[in-house]
Specification:
Layout lengths: L1 E6 L11 H5 L4 E5 L7 H14 L2 E5 L17 H22 L3 E4 L3 H7 L3 H14 L4 E5 L3 H8 L3 E7 L23 H14 L1 E3 L5 E3 L4 E4 L6 H14 L12
Parallel strand pairs: 1-2, 1-9, 2-3, 3-4, 4-5, 5-6, 6-9
Antiparallel strand pairs: 7-8
Helix pairs in contact: 2-3, 3-5, 5-6, 7-8
């Protein structure tokens, strides 16, 4: 199993999360590309820290929405979205090269992530952009979403992910952040539900019903309060149960 987190999201004097601590826990890092968060100097520092620890790096592409942290819905034209995603991957590739590592996958962020899980047009734009830059890049997508099959049909390798710190609806979608209970904060609860997912392939929804969910990576949001403790507790619980933790992409 892989553990990933959204990192590189600090912006100037605005500090977001604890990248150094999280990089000691995760096996993959989704690094901001400057559109929803992150400044070049901070992103470069995060990439250097990831390289030093052997953590796989992915481009955390987003809508151009610094004020809304990439969590506001947008409807860009296909030309705009393709260009934006290419631009972000390319920027992170340059910084990654300078840091002694490379971009191995792409994980859309926030509103873009949730939109392309179901929206065929925007999903196609993101797939087109990834293939234009490097068709060998892996796409990380929401487990159970139509996007997974759309990307596979276009020849992309796809890795399905589950969210440790987010509540699920019965259809496998994430509960809106606007609703109570959408974000989980108890490290022990988070660790136990992720162990259950790994061992049984099931996760408990916000209504208490269990649903099937196939995932090869687990995300803990780096900006969540107590994110480091949640990630550390989950890692320890999985290792104690004999679960092997490693990046889902080759580091060769």
């Amino acid at each position: 199993m892989d553990i990933n987190s959204d990192l590189g999201e600090s912006y100037g004097a605005w500090r977001m999360g604890d990248d150094a601590a999280m990089l000691d826990i995760v096996s993959s890092a989704n690094v901001a590309c400057g559109f929803h968060a992150g400044d070049p100097a901070g992103i470069l520092q995060t990439l250097k820290q990831a390289a030093a620890r052997g953590v796989a790096v992915g481009a955390h592409v987003a809508y151009p929405d610094l004020a809304g942290f990439g969590r506001r819905n947008m409807d860009p034209s296909s030309a705009e979205l393709v260009g934006d995603v290419i631009y972000q991957i390319g920027a992170l590739q340059g910084l990654a090269t300078a840091a002694g590592t490379r971009v191995r996958y792409v994980k859309p962020h926030g509103a873009l992530y949730n939109t392309i899980a179901q929206d065929a047009r925007q999903a196609g734009d993101v797939i087109e952009a990834i293939q234009a830059v490097d068709p060998q890049l892996t796409l990380m997508a929401l487990a159970g979403a139509p996007l997974i099959e759309w990307a596979k049909e276009r020849g992309l390798r796809v890795v399905a992910e589950a969210f440790a710190d987010r509540a699920y609806n019965e259809d496998g979608s994430l509960v809106s952040r606007r609703l109570p209970g959408a974000v989980l904060h108890d490290p022990q609860q988070v660790a136990q539900r992720m162990l259950q997912l790994v061992q049984t392939g099931e996760i408990e929804t916000i209504t208490g019903k269990r649903i099937r969910l196939q995932a090869d990576s687990i995300c803990v949001h780096g900006d969540s309060p107590g994110a480091v403790e949640m990630a550390r507790c989950m890692r320890e619980r999985l290792l104690q149960a004999g679960v092997s933790l490693q990046p889902f992409v080759s580091m060769a």
